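2024-03-11 09:14:02 INFO worker-7 job=invfold-0412 stage=load source=structure_tokens
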């Protein structure tokens, strides 16, 4: 297969080197286009007000890997690869292996997930891989799982594939208990802004904080959403689906399907009923009839 690989940790990150080299050694045609430096937590940002530069890189990856370092964001990298560097589109876009988890609401900020999402936007199957520890340097189990997953998807492709967000626990291979299809959970943080002064005495702030793994009432709110959605269609397959944030704590690899369409089906139904009732007030709030009703 022809694989395009990107990340948000930069061209010299251990994760992307492990992923690209493992895929090349498995016989895949591998192209790497990724940021020239760390661009974590950039979300789906694009560079619009300055030029994007890209240079070919040698001596970092397996000899068969074609690698480029780009001055832009992770999303820029994939867009540039598809629009300018690759003559023909790849069979799949891979992103990672990220140093650190991308669980729950992390996906909204993640450059790793956004790079993979660019593939889905262009109709190309895509997977984002993350190792759930910032200190762990052993990417071998994650890279091996990535290789196996790509091979299975090649043999048994998914119709209209979603973006697969894959998180691998940072433990030895023999400690991984398996893999599960998981739903996106919630990860909230205690955000702390440290106030500091630069050498010239000017104030600046540094964002820090700790993750809250246990979010109260998340299960209750999900159960309510599932019950409401079941009135619209059959969502019985969601019943009992583990939450990614919890499953990863059990040394399970989590595979969570995502898509870029953020439309809320429940919100559509609620708003349609609401708009029908208040449509005249929305368009003509000062009409005598509406004033009398209020």
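2024-03-11 09:14:09 INFO worker-7 stage=emit residues=294
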């Amino acid at each position: 297969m022809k694989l395009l690989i990107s990340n948000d940790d930069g061209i010299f990150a251990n994760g992307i080197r492990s992923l690209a080299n493992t895929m090349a050694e498995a016989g895949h045609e591998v192209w790497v286009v990724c940021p020239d430096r760390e661009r974590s937590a950039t979300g789906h940002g694009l560079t619009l007000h300055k030029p994007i530069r890209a240079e070919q890189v040698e001596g970092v990856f397996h000899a068969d890997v074609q690698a480029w370092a780009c001055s832009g964001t992770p999303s820029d990298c994939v867009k540039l690869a598809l629009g300018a560097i690759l003559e023909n589109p790849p069979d799949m876009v891979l992103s990672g292996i990220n140093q650190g988890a991308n669980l729950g609401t992390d996906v909204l900020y993640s450059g790793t997930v956004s790079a993979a999402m660019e593939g889905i936007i262009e109709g190309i199957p895509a997977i984002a891989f993350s190792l759930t520890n910032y200190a762990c340097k052993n990417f071998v189990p994650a890279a091996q799982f990535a290789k196996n997953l790509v091979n299975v998807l090649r043999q048994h492709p998914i119709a209209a594939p979603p973006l697969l967000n894959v998180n691998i626990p940072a433990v030895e291979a023999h400690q991984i208990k398996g893999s599960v299809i998981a739903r996106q959970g919630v990860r909230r943080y205690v955000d702390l802004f440290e106030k500091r002064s630069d050498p010239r005495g000017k104030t600046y702030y540094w964002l820090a904080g700790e993750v809250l793994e246990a979010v109260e009432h998340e299960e209750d709110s999900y159960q309510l959403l599932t019950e409401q959605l079941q009135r619209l269609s059959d969502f019985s397959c969601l019943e009992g689906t583990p939450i990614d944030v919890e499953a990863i704590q059990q040394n399970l690899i989590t595979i969570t399907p995502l898509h870029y369409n953020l439309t809320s089906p429940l919100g559509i139904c609620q708003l349609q009923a609401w708009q029908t009732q208040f449509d005249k007030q929305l368009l003509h709030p000062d009409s005598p009839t509406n004033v009398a009703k209020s």
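2024-03-11 09:14:09 INFO worker-7 stage=report msg="The radius of gyration is 22 Å."
2024-03-11 09:14:10 INFO worker-7 job finished
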